[in-house]
Amino acid sequence: MTTAVAARTWRPAAGQLLPLLLAGALVLTAIAYPLTSGDARDAVSWTIVVLGSLLSVVHAGLSRGARTAAGLLLLVAVAAIAFESIGLATGFPYGSYEYSDVLGPTLLGVPFLVPLAWLMMAWPSWVLADRLVRPVRPERRRPARIAWAAGIFAAWDVVLDPQMVQAGYWTWAHPDPGLPGIDTVPLTNLAGWSFAGLVLMTLLDRLAARSPAPPRIGDAAPLLALGWMTLGGALAHAGWLGLPGSAAWGGALGAAVLVVLAVQHRRASRR
């Protein structure tokens, strides 16, 4: 009997450990990004994206089952290639841009790294949105979750896109007008990410709704990755990368979410 109880308590802990290890490795690798340059920085970028995408799939599988993990991988890959290939060919919905050869092999003009980056961003965005809508009435929870997830997905790119342009991974044909303080990325990109995010998160929400409830493990790992890539990224932009505009936006957006979470926690603790 003691052995059975120990097994039941160990399995969740063991299941939580792997995502946390991946999140920790992601954070450490992200710290190395502003401290490197040239080919070493390119290798760090690839490592960050691979770790982030692996974290998303592993956490989805351990928390909501293998079918959810497989569906997440397929859904994000198809959505990323579809939106990005259309964007490259037509300029819709992001604006006119092109990738450099640094990112390596492509499919329909889309570097393999790009769907992995979408995967890294999409799942933590949905997980955070799921947490943010817990106080919302059940009948309003799904549209609120989709809206939050799409907004977080787009906001994350506000920090990442100027960094990637600075690294030479892609360039915009018409970067103006942009957000105040960001003169290398057009506002059309934010609009495009918001639109793509709404489509992707609507589909992802339906996928996650079919998974077992409640989740089998907690969401600390994807939230740690999301928090560090946003707030830690803002710190790197301000202190090392010379990107004060995106640093300010990243700090403001990250702080806004933290305030919402703090208010929710305070209200819940009063009940």
TrEMBL record:
Question: Could you tell me which InterPro entries the record lists for this protein?
Answer: CruF-like (IPR007354)
Q: Which residues cross the membrane?
A: 43-62, 69-94, 106-126, 146-170, 190-208, 220-240, 246-263
**Keywords, alphabetical:** Membrane, Transmembrane, Transmembrane helix
Highest taxon of the lineage: Bacteria
Q: Which PANTHER family match?
A: SLL0814 PROTEIN
Stated name of the protein: Putative membrane protein
Q: Which organism is it from?
A: Blastococcus haudaquaticus
